[in-house]
Design a protein that fits this description.
With 352 residues, the protein is an alpha/beta fold. It has 2 domains: 2-224, inorganic pyrophosphatase (n-terminal core) (Alpha-Beta Complex); 238-344, Roll (Diaminopimelate Epimerase, Chain A, domain 1). The protein is 40% helix and 18% strand. The chain is built from 13 helices and 12 strands. It has helices at residues 7-15, 31-44, 59-67, 83-90, 123-131, 141-150, 158-167, 190-204, 209-215, 226-247, 266-276, 305-313, 337-344, and strands at residues 2-4, 23-27, 48-51, 72-76, 94-99, 112-117, 249-251, 254-259, 281-287, 291-297, 320-323, 327-333. The strands form 2 sheets. It has a 6-stranded mixed beta sheet with strand order 1-6-5-4-2-3, sandwiched between helices. Helix 2 (31-44) packs antiparallel against helix 6 (141-150), helix 3 (59-67) packs parallel to helix 4 and helix 6 packs across helix 8. It is globular.
C-alpha cells in the first residue's frame, strides 16, 4: 500500500526517538487527521500535538517550532507543498511525513523521511499499518475504521474493514460495500454513528481540536462528552439541507448552492448532498468576510473534482483550490463571484 518511501527508514526514525528529543506532531483538522494523530501519539507520546489548516503551514510555524526547541517534527494527513517551509524546518529538526494525498513530489532526503500511501487509503490507516508493527494498538482499530469511512477510503482495505466490523458485531448489509457512507446509513452501525458524531464535534470545536483528540478513549465507542456537542451541529446541518432543496441551482451535471452557515459545515453538507446525488457535481459556496470558500463533490468519480476546482478558479486573484477526485475545496475573492458563476454557466444572483 506504500507508493513512495521506505518502511526501514520509518522504523529507523521512530526507533531513534529518545527522551532528549522534543517531538512535535502536526496533523490536519478533519477526522482523518485527528485519528492519525491519535494512532501516532499512542506510540510516540509527542511533546505537543497541533492540528493545522494548510494556510497555517507557513514561516510563522517554522519560527515557533525553532523557538520552542523541537528536534523531531512529524506531519500526517497534510499535503506538503511549501518547499521553503519544509527546508527551513529541516535545518533544525528531523522530519517524518506520513500522507495519502496525490503527489509526484518525493520529499525523502537525509533529514526527511517521507511515506505516501497509494490512492484509496486514508492517513489514519497508513499510520495504523505502520505503528502497529511497533506496538499493539488494536484498541484503536474502531477509530481507524471510522476514519476510513469518513474519508471515503474504505474499499481498498475492505477485507480488514470487514474484520473490524465483525469484531464489534456491527450490522451486516450492503451499506458496508459503498465508498464512504450515505447520510441515510449513519445509524446502521455504531462505527458509522461514531465517525459521524466525531466529525460534527470537530466542527463544533474547530478552535480547540485538542478537546476532540483528548476525549477519544481506548475502549470501543469512548468519545467522552462529544455527542452532546455534535447534536448542536446536527441541527444546523438539517436546516442547510432543507434550504438546499429550496434554493439549489442547476448546472451542467449537477447543482450549486450558496449559503452562510454559522458553523463550518460546508464540507459535511456537500458530502451528504453528494451521497444522495452520486452522479452529479455538487458545489457549495460559503460566504466569508472577504470571499467565498467552496466545497465540491462528485462521488461516482467520473469527474476529477480536484482538477475541476483548479480550472474553475484558474487565474483569479488570491484564489486557490484542489483536492481528490471525488472531493475538493477552494477559495476566491468576493469580487470574482460573478466570474465564477459565469464559468459555471449560471447567473450571478446569490442565495439569501
Amino acid at each position: 500500500m506504500i507508493e513512495i518511501g521506505s518502511e526501514k527508514r520509518f522504523f529507523d526514525f521512530i526507533s531513534g526517538l529518545n527522551d532528549k528529543d522534543k517531538v512535535a506532531l502536526i496533523s490536519h483538522i478533519d477526522l482523518d487527521g485527528i485519528s492519525a494523530a491519535k494512532v501516532i501519539d499512542e506510540v510516540v507520546d509527542a511533546d505537543s500535538v497541533k492540528f493545522l489548516q494548510y494556510d497555517e503551514i507557513d514561516m510563522n510555524l517554522v519560527e515557533q517550532l525553532k523557538i520552542d526547541g523541537y528536534r523531531k517534527v512529524i506531519f500526517t494527513d497534510l499535503y506538503m507543498e511549501n518547499e521553503d517551509v519544509v527546508r527551513e524546518i529541516g535545518k533544525f529538526a528531523e522530519i517524518l511525513i506520513l500522507d495519502h494525498h496525490p503527489s509526484d513530489k518525493d520529499w525523502n532526503s537525509e533529514r526527511i523521511v517521507y511515506i505516501k500511501s497509494e490512492e484509496g487509503y486514508c492517513a489514519t490507516y497508513l499510520c495504523y499499518r505502520l505503528f502497529r508493527k511497533i506496538k499493539d494498538i488494536e484498541n484503536l482499530d474502531w477509530l481507524v475504521a471510522g476514519a476510513c469511512v469518513a474519508d471515503f477510503c474504505n474499499l481498498k482495505n475492505k477485507e480488514w474493514m470487514e474484520e473490524i466490523f465483525d469484531k464489534y458485531n456491527q450490522e451486516k448489509g450492503d451499506y458496508r460495500d459503498k465508498l464512504g457512507f450515505d447520510y441515510d446509513d449513519i445509524d446502521k452501525s455504531k462505527i458509522y454513528r461514531l465517525q459521524w458524531e466525531l466529525s460534527l464535534a470537530i466542527i463544533y470545536f474547530r478552535n480547540n481540536l485538542k478537546k476532540v483528540f483528548d476525549e477519544i478513549g481506548e475502549s470501543f465507542g469512548d468519545i467522552g462528552d462529544l455527542s452532546d456537542y455534535s447534536e448542536k451541529i446536527q441541527k444546523e446541518i438539517d436546516e442547510a439541507l432543507k434550504k438546499f432543496e429550496k434554493e439549489k441551482k442547476e448546472i451542467s451535471d449537477g447543482f450549486i448552492f450558496t449559503f452562510s452557515p454559522n458553523m463550518r459545515i460546508g464540507g459535511i453538507v456537500s458530502t451528504i448532498i453528494s451521497s444522495r446525488n452520486s452522479n452529479k457535481k455538487i458545489i457549495l459556496f460559503m460566504e466569508k468576510e472577504k470571499g467565498y470558500s467552496l466545497s465540491a463533490r462528485r462521488q461516482d468519480k467520473k469527474v476529477d473534482m480536484g482538477e475541476f476546482v483548479k480550472n474553475l478558479l484558474a487565474g483569479l486573484e488570491e484564489a486557490k483550490g484542489g483536492g481528490h477526485i471525488p472531493a475538493a475545496g477552494g477559495y476566491f475573492l468576493k469580487k470574482d463571484f460573478d466570474e465564477v458563476m459565469r464559468r459555471l454557466g449560471v447567473g450571478a444572483e446569490k442565495s439569501s
